[in-house]
Amino acid sequence: MDNETMKAVVRFRDERNWRQFHNPKDLAISISIEAAELLEVFQWSGQDTDAADKLDKIKEELADVMIYSMLMSDRLGLDVDEIVMDKLRKNSEKYEVEKAYGNSKKYTELR
Fold it and tell me: What is the pLDDT of residues 15-69, one digit of tens each?
């Protein structure tokens, strides 16, 4: 994650004295709400699974999810790059290329 982006998010929060409201529970709720708003963009889209004509709204909602996620990682003292890389390592063990390539099954179903 771009360190400048994280600094900008934290600066925005701190300039408004909002850290006091950003406990892990409320941040998790906010992430879920914003993710639901992102999902809402695709509601009733039928065959238009890309929703290309709604790209501006998708970008807005995706940014909200990412901002709240960054705020949660900051609040918990977690390094975004570190936790993402750790998860990728774990996923690479679960989803070996040879078994998962071109396959959408969950790792427990891969043979």
Answer: 999 999 999 999 999 999 999 999 999 998 888 888 888 999 999 999 999 999 9
Nearest-CA neighbor of 32 among 1, 68, 6? 68
Quote the Cα angle for 7-9-12, to 5°.
Answer: 105
User: Which amino acid is residue 8, in one-letter code?
Assistant: A
* Cα distance between residue 108 and residue 95, in whole Å: 9
Rounded to whole angstroms, the Cα distance separating 41 from 104 reads 23
| Residue 26 host element (H or E) | helix 24-42
Question: For residue 57, what are its two tokens?
Answer: 């709204």
Which tokens go with 8?
A: 């900008």
pTM: 0.88
Listed as own residue / partner, the contacts of 101-109 with beta carbons closer than 8 Å and 24 or more positions apart are: none
